[in-house]
Task: structure prediction
Amino acid sequence: MTGPSSLAARAIVAASSSARLKEAVTRAPVTRSVVERFVAGEAEDDGVRAARSLAGSGLRVSLDHLGEFTSDPEVIRAATAATVSMLRRLAAEGLAPACEVSVKLTALGLDVGRSVALDNAYAVVAAAREAGTTVTCDMEDSTRTDRTLDVVRELRAEEPSVGVVLQAMLRRTESDARDLAHAGSRVRLCKGAYAEPESVAFPSRAEVDASYARSLGILMRGQGYPMVATHDPRFVDLGERLVKEHGRGADTYEFQMLYGIRPGEQLALAGRGHTVRVYVPYGKDWYGYLMRRLAERPANVAFFVRALATRS
Ligand code: FDA
Result:
Protein backbone atom coordinates (compact mmCIF):
# COMPACT_ATOMS: atom_id res chain seq x y z
CA MET A 1 0.00 0.00 0.00
CA THR A 2 1.09 3.53 -0.62
CA GLY A 3 -0.54 6.76 0.41
CA PRO A 4 0.03 9.28 3.14
CA SER A 5 3.70 8.91 4.11
CA SER A 6 5.07 7.17 7.23
CA LEU A 7 4.17 3.73 8.42
CA ALA A 8 2.04 5.03 11.30
CA ALA A 9 0.06 7.23 8.92
CA ARG A 10 -0.62 4.38 6.51
CA ALA A 11 -1.62 2.17 9.43
CA ILE A 12 -4.10 4.81 10.59
CA VAL A 13 -5.74 5.14 7.17
CA ALA A 14 -5.87 1.36 6.74
CA ALA A 15 -7.16 0.77 10.29
CA SER A 16 -9.75 3.54 10.13
CA SER A 17 -12.30 1.13 8.67
CA SER A 18 -12.21 -0.91 11.93
CA ALA A 19 -15.43 -0.49 13.91
CA ARG A 20 -13.54 -0.93 17.21
CA LEU A 21 -11.06 1.84 16.41
CA LYS A 22 -13.92 4.07 15.33
CA GLU A 23 -15.67 3.57 18.64
CA ALA A 24 -12.50 4.17 20.67
CA VAL A 25 -11.70 7.36 18.75
CA THR A 26 -15.25 8.70 18.81
CA ARG A 27 -15.48 8.19 22.59
CA ALA A 28 -12.02 9.45 23.54
CA PRO A 29 -12.20 12.75 25.45
CA VAL A 30 -9.24 14.11 23.47
CA THR A 31 -11.13 13.71 20.19
CA ARG A 32 -13.42 16.71 20.59
CA SER A 33 -10.62 19.29 20.54
CA VAL A 34 -8.91 17.61 17.57
CA VAL A 35 -12.20 17.52 15.65
CA GLU A 36 -12.78 21.20 16.36
CA ARG A 37 -9.48 22.06 14.73
CA PHE A 38 -10.43 20.48 11.39
CA VAL A 39 -14.26 20.58 11.30
CA ALA A 40 -16.44 23.69 11.52
CA GLY A 41 -19.06 21.92 13.66
CA GLU A 42 -21.86 19.38 13.37
CA ALA A 43 -24.74 21.67 12.32
CA GLU A 44 -25.54 23.58 9.12
CA ASP A 45 -25.34 26.77 11.19
CA ASP A 46 -21.73 25.94 12.10
CA GLY A 47 -20.80 25.60 8.44
CA VAL A 48 -22.54 28.87 7.58
CA ARG A 49 -20.84 30.67 10.47
CA ALA A 50 -17.38 29.50 9.36
CA ALA A 51 -18.16 30.41 5.74
CA ARG A 52 -19.34 33.90 6.71
CA SER A 53 -16.22 34.52 8.74
CA LEU A 54 -13.84 33.29 6.01
CA ALA A 55 -15.71 35.19 3.29
CA GLY A 56 -15.48 38.27 5.51
CA SER A 57 -11.69 38.00 5.40
CA GLY A 58 -11.64 37.88 1.62
CA LEU A 59 -11.43 34.10 1.21
CA ARG A 60 -13.71 31.84 -0.82
CA VAL A 61 -15.18 28.68 0.61
CA SER A 62 -16.20 25.18 -0.43
CA LEU A 63 -18.56 23.61 2.12
CA ASP A 64 -18.57 19.84 2.51
CA HIS A 65 -21.39 18.08 4.35
CA LEU A 66 -19.42 15.19 5.89
CA GLY A 67 -20.34 11.63 4.98
CA GLU A 68 -19.12 8.97 2.55
CA PHE A 69 -19.12 5.30 1.54
CA THR A 70 -22.77 4.58 2.28
CA SER A 71 -25.37 2.40 0.60
CA ASP A 72 -28.15 3.27 3.04
CA PRO A 73 -30.96 4.95 1.06
CA GLU A 74 -32.02 7.04 4.05
CA VAL A 75 -28.48 8.33 4.68
CA ILE A 76 -28.09 9.10 0.95
CA ARG A 77 -31.40 10.95 0.85
CA ALA A 78 -30.46 12.97 3.95
CA ALA A 79 -26.99 13.81 2.57
CA THR A 80 -28.48 15.11 -0.68
CA ALA A 81 -31.08 17.14 1.22
CA ALA A 82 -28.41 18.59 3.54
CA THR A 83 -26.31 19.86 0.62
CA VAL A 84 -29.34 21.31 -1.19
CA SER A 85 -30.37 23.00 2.05
CA MET A 86 -26.88 24.47 2.50
CA LEU A 87 -26.98 25.89 -1.04
CA ARG A 88 -30.33 27.60 -0.34
CA ARG A 89 -28.88 28.96 2.87
CA LEU A 90 -25.80 30.34 1.05
CA ALA A 91 -28.08 32.14 -1.41
CA ALA A 92 -30.35 33.49 1.34
CA GLU A 93 -27.39 34.79 3.35
CA GLY A 94 -25.75 36.46 0.35
CA LEU A 95 -22.77 34.09 0.58
CA ALA A 96 -23.00 32.76 -2.99
CA PRO A 97 -21.10 32.84 -5.31
CA ALA A 98 -18.07 33.22 -2.95
CA CYS A 99 -19.12 29.99 -1.24
CA GLU A 100 -19.73 26.77 -3.20
CA VAL A 101 -20.18 23.14 -2.12
CA SER A 102 -18.03 20.04 -2.47
CA VAL A 103 -19.65 16.63 -2.62
CA LYS A 104 -18.44 13.06 -2.29
CA LEU A 105 -20.31 10.92 -4.79
CA THR A 106 -20.38 7.91 -2.42
CA ALA A 107 -22.43 10.08 -0.04
CA LEU A 108 -24.89 10.64 -2.90
CA GLY A 109 -25.22 6.93 -3.75
CA LEU A 110 -22.32 6.01 -6.07
CA ASP A 111 -21.92 2.63 -4.37
CA VAL A 112 -25.60 1.84 -4.95
CA GLY A 113 -25.43 2.69 -8.61
CA ARG A 114 -24.47 5.28 -11.21
CA SER A 115 -28.03 6.46 -11.75
CA VAL A 116 -28.66 7.01 -8.01
CA ALA A 117 -25.52 9.17 -7.68
CA LEU A 118 -26.33 10.98 -10.89
CA ASP A 119 -29.93 11.79 -9.91
CA ASN A 120 -28.83 13.14 -6.53
CA ALA A 121 -25.91 15.05 -8.02
CA TYR A 122 -28.29 16.63 -10.58
CA ALA A 123 -30.44 17.85 -7.67
CA VAL A 124 -27.36 19.41 -6.02
CA VAL A 125 -26.20 20.98 -9.29
CA ALA A 126 -29.67 22.43 -9.92
CA ALA A 127 -29.72 23.94 -6.41
CA ALA A 128 -26.25 25.40 -6.94
CA ARG A 129 -27.29 26.93 -10.24
CA GLU A 130 -30.32 28.48 -8.57
CA ALA A 131 -28.10 29.81 -5.78
CA GLY A 132 -25.65 31.20 -8.35
CA THR A 133 -22.69 29.11 -7.28
CA THR A 134 -20.76 25.96 -8.20
CA VAL A 135 -20.29 22.32 -7.17
CA THR A 136 -17.02 20.39 -7.02
CA CYS A 137 -16.98 16.58 -6.85
CA ASP A 138 -14.29 15.32 -4.47
CA MET A 139 -12.23 12.32 -5.53
CA GLU A 140 -12.32 9.23 -3.32
CA ASP A 141 -10.26 6.02 -3.47
CA SER A 142 -8.91 4.64 -6.75
CA THR A 143 -11.60 1.94 -7.12
CA ARG A 144 -14.01 4.83 -7.72
CA THR A 145 -11.91 7.13 -9.93
CA ASP A 146 -13.39 5.98 -13.26
CA ARG A 147 -16.95 6.03 -11.92
CA THR A 148 -16.45 9.51 -10.45
CA LEU A 149 -15.00 10.89 -13.69
CA ASP A 150 -17.84 9.29 -15.62
CA VAL A 151 -20.51 10.93 -13.42
CA VAL A 152 -18.72 14.29 -13.62
CA ARG A 153 -18.58 14.03 -17.43
CA GLU A 154 -22.33 13.47 -17.46
CA LEU A 155 -22.99 16.35 -15.04
CA ARG A 156 -20.82 18.68 -17.09
CA ALA A 157 -22.94 18.01 -20.16
CA GLU A 158 -25.69 19.76 -18.21
CA GLU A 159 -23.59 22.19 -16.16
CA PRO A 160 -20.02 22.73 -17.42
CA SER A 161 -18.92 24.52 -14.22
CA VAL A 162 -18.96 21.30 -12.18
CA GLY A 163 -15.48 20.84 -10.73
CA VAL A 164 -13.51 17.62 -10.38
CA VAL A 165 -10.49 16.49 -8.37
CA LEU A 166 -7.31 14.70 -9.48
CA GLN A 167 -4.86 13.04 -7.09
CA ALA A 168 -1.14 13.32 -7.92
CA MET A 169 -0.41 10.06 -6.12
CA LEU A 170 -2.18 8.07 -8.86
CA ARG A 171 -0.13 6.96 -11.86
CA ARG A 172 -3.00 7.85 -14.20
CA THR A 173 -3.28 11.49 -13.11
CA GLU A 174 -0.93 13.12 -15.61
CA SER A 175 -2.99 11.63 -18.42
CA ASP A 176 -6.28 12.64 -16.74
CA ALA A 177 -4.90 16.19 -16.33
CA ARG A 178 -4.23 16.31 -20.09
CA ASP A 179 -7.81 15.20 -20.82
CA LEU A 180 -9.28 17.72 -18.40
CA ALA A 181 -7.19 20.82 -19.19
CA HIS A 182 -9.77 22.21 -21.63
CA ALA A 183 -11.62 25.53 -21.59
CA GLY A 184 -14.04 25.97 -18.70
CA SER A 185 -12.83 22.85 -16.88
CA ARG A 186 -12.42 23.39 -13.12
CA VAL A 187 -9.87 20.88 -11.83
CA ARG A 188 -8.65 20.65 -8.24
CA LEU A 189 -5.21 19.03 -8.01
CA CYS A 190 -4.30 17.47 -4.65
CA LYS A 191 -1.77 14.81 -3.58
CA GLY A 192 -4.41 12.23 -2.59
CA ALA A 193 -5.47 11.10 0.87
CA TYR A 194 -6.36 7.40 0.48
CA ALA A 195 -4.25 4.28 1.05
CA GLU A 196 -3.66 2.83 -2.43
CA PRO A 197 -1.85 -0.23 -3.85
CA GLU A 198 1.41 0.38 -5.73
CA SER A 199 -0.18 -0.98 -8.89
CA VAL A 200 -2.11 2.29 -9.23
CA ALA A 201 -0.21 4.76 -7.04
CA PHE A 202 3.35 6.03 -6.69
CA PRO A 203 5.01 4.45 -3.65
CA SER A 204 7.32 7.30 -2.67
CA ARG A 205 6.78 10.89 -1.62
CA ALA A 206 9.34 12.01 -4.25
CA GLU A 207 7.35 10.36 -7.06
CA VAL A 208 4.07 11.87 -5.82
CA ASP A 209 5.77 15.27 -5.72
CA ALA A 210 7.11 14.86 -9.27
CA SER A 211 3.64 13.84 -10.46
CA TYR A 212 2.11 16.89 -8.72
CA ALA A 213 4.61 19.19 -10.45
CA ARG A 214 4.02 17.63 -13.90
CA SER A 215 0.23 17.63 -13.57
CA LEU A 216 0.14 21.20 -12.27
CA GLY A 217 2.25 22.26 -15.26
CA ILE A 218 -0.24 20.63 -17.62
CA LEU A 219 -3.23 22.30 -15.94
CA MET A 220 -1.57 25.74 -15.80
CA ARG A 221 -0.51 25.57 -19.47
CA GLY A 222 -4.00 24.41 -20.46
CA GLN A 223 -7.22 26.32 -21.03
CA GLY A 224 -9.05 25.23 -17.88
CA TYR A 225 -9.35 26.61 -14.35
CA PRO A 226 -6.72 24.93 -12.12
CA MET A 227 -7.42 24.73 -8.39
CA VAL A 228 -4.10 24.25 -6.59
CA ALA A 229 -5.06 22.30 -3.44
CA THR A 230 -2.06 21.96 -1.15
CA HIS A 231 -0.51 23.27 2.06
CA ASP A 232 2.94 22.30 0.86
CA PRO A 233 5.01 25.49 0.54
CA ARG A 234 6.96 24.02 -2.41
CA PHE A 235 3.80 23.60 -4.47
CA VAL A 236 2.34 26.91 -3.40
CA ASP A 237 5.58 28.47 -4.72
CA LEU A 238 5.39 26.42 -7.90
CA GLY A 239 1.76 27.48 -8.37
CA GLU A 240 2.72 31.14 -8.02
CA ARG A 241 5.61 30.74 -10.47
CA LEU A 242 3.43 29.01 -13.07
CA VAL A 243 0.71 31.64 -12.75
CA LYS A 244 3.32 34.29 -13.53
CA GLU A 245 4.96 32.30 -16.33
CA HIS A 246 1.63 31.73 -18.10
CA GLY A 247 0.32 35.22 -17.43
CA ARG A 248 -2.82 33.92 -15.75
CA GLY A 249 -5.24 36.52 -14.37
CA ALA A 250 -6.50 36.13 -10.77
CA ASP A 251 -9.89 34.90 -12.03
CA THR A 252 -8.44 31.99 -14.04
CA TYR A 253 -7.13 29.75 -11.21
CA GLU A 254 -7.25 29.45 -7.45
CA PHE A 255 -5.36 28.10 -4.46
CA GLN A 256 -7.22 25.88 -2.01
CA MET A 257 -6.47 24.77 1.56
CA LEU A 258 -8.37 22.91 4.26
CA TYR A 259 -10.16 24.53 7.18
CA GLY A 260 -7.82 24.78 10.17
CA ILE A 261 -4.58 24.11 8.26
CA ARG A 262 -2.13 26.98 7.69
CA PRO A 263 -4.80 29.71 8.13
CA GLY A 264 -2.10 32.40 8.15
CA GLU A 265 -0.84 31.26 4.75
CA GLN A 266 -4.41 31.28 3.39
CA LEU A 267 -4.67 34.99 4.21
CA ALA A 268 -1.13 35.75 3.05
CA LEU A 269 -1.81 34.19 -0.36
CA ALA A 270 -5.03 36.17 -0.72
CA GLY A 271 -3.09 39.27 0.31
CA ARG A 272 -0.73 38.66 -2.63
CA GLY A 273 -3.71 38.93 -4.98
CA HIS A 274 -4.57 35.26 -5.46
CA THR A 275 -8.03 33.76 -5.21
CA VAL A 276 -7.94 31.43 -2.20
CA ARG A 277 -10.69 28.95 -1.28
CA VAL A 278 -10.95 27.15 2.05
CA TYR A 279 -12.56 23.71 2.15
CA VAL A 280 -14.89 23.70 5.16
CA PRO A 281 -16.24 20.34 6.37
CA TYR A 282 -19.23 20.27 8.70
CA GLY A 283 -21.63 17.60 9.94
CA LYS A 284 -21.78 14.67 12.32
CA ASP A 285 -19.98 12.08 10.19
CA TRP A 286 -16.48 13.47 10.73
CA TYR A 287 -14.63 10.23 11.55
CA GLY A 288 -13.17 9.32 8.12
CA TYR A 289 -12.21 12.93 7.39
CA LEU A 290 -10.49 13.26 10.77
CA MET A 291 -8.51 10.04 10.27
CA ARG A 292 -7.19 11.28 6.91
CA ARG A 293 -6.10 14.60 8.45
CA LEU A 294 -4.32 12.81 11.29
CA ALA A 295 -2.59 10.47 8.87
CA GLU A 296 -1.13 13.37 6.91
CA ARG A 297 0.91 14.48 9.87
CA PRO A 298 2.97 11.97 11.86
CA ALA A 299 3.11 14.37 14.84
CA ASN A 300 -0.72 14.39 14.99
CA VAL A 301 -0.82 10.60 14.85
CA ALA A 302 1.71 10.09 17.67
CA PHE A 303 -0.11 12.59 19.87
CA PHE A 304 -3.47 11.05 19.22
CA VAL A 305 -2.38 7.43 19.70
CA ARG A 306 -0.70 8.34 23.02
CA ALA A 307 -3.84 10.12 24.20
CA LEU A 308 -6.02 7.14 23.23
CA ALA A 309 -3.69 4.66 24.93
CA THR A 310 -3.71 6.55 28.22
CA ARG A 311 -7.44 7.23 28.44
CA SER A 312 -8.95 5.71 31.56
P1 FDA B 1 1.66 17.64 2.85
O1 FDA B 1 0.81 16.57 3.45
O2 FDA B 1 3.06 17.30 2.48
O3 FDA B 1 1.65 18.89 3.84
C1 FDA B 1 2.46 20.03 3.68
C2 FDA B 1 2.43 20.84 4.98
O4 FDA B 1 1.11 21.28 5.26
C3 FDA B 1 2.80 20.03 6.23
O5 FDA B 1 4.21 19.99 6.42
C4 FDA B 1 2.07 20.79 7.31
O6 FDA B 1 2.76 21.98 7.62
C5 FDA B 1 0.79 21.17 6.62
N1 FDA B 1 -0.22 20.12 6.81
C6 FDA B 1 -0.69 19.29 5.84
N2 FDA B 1 -1.64 18.47 6.33
C7 FDA B 1 -1.76 18.76 7.63
C8 FDA B 1 -2.58 18.27 8.67
N3 FDA B 1 -3.46 17.29 8.47
N4 FDA B 1 -2.45 18.81 9.91
C9 FDA B 1 -1.59 19.81 10.13
N5 FDA B 1 -0.78 20.34 9.17
C10 FDA B 1 -0.87 19.83 7.95
N6 FDA B 1 -7.68 14.40 -1.16
C11 FDA B 1 -8.34 13.46 -1.87
O7 FDA B 1 -7.90 12.33 -1.95
N7 FDA B 1 -9.52 13.80 -2.50
C12 FDA B 1 -10.04 15.06 -2.47
O8 FDA B 1 -11.09 15.32 -3.06
C13 FDA B 1 -9.33 16.05 -1.73
N8 FDA B 1 -9.79 17.33 -1.64
C14 FDA B 1 -9.00 18.30 -1.07
C15 FDA B 1 -9.38 19.63 -1.10
C16 FDA B 1 -8.54 20.62 -0.62
C17 FDA B 1 -8.96 22.04 -0.70
C18 FDA B 1 -7.26 20.26 -0.07
C19 FDA B 1 -6.31 21.30 0.42
C20 FDA B 1 -6.91 18.95 0.01
C21 FDA B 1 -7.75 17.96 -0.45
N9 FDA B 1 -7.41 16.61 -0.36
C22 FDA B 1 -8.14 15.67 -1.07
C23 FDA B 1 -6.32 16.18 0.55
C24 FDA B 1 -4.99 16.06 -0.15
O9 FDA B 1 -5.00 14.96 -1.02
C25 FDA B 1 -3.85 15.87 0.85
O10 FDA B 1 -4.06 14.69 1.57
C26 FDA B 1 -3.63 17.02 1.82
O11 FDA B 1 -3.89 18.25 1.23
C27 FDA B 1 -2.20 17.02 2.37
O12 FDA B 1 -1.29 17.22 1.32
P2 FDA B 1 -0.46 18.58 1.11
O13 FDA B 1 -0.39 18.83 -0.34
O14 FDA B 1 -1.06 19.66 1.91
O15 FDA B 1 1.02 18.23 1.53
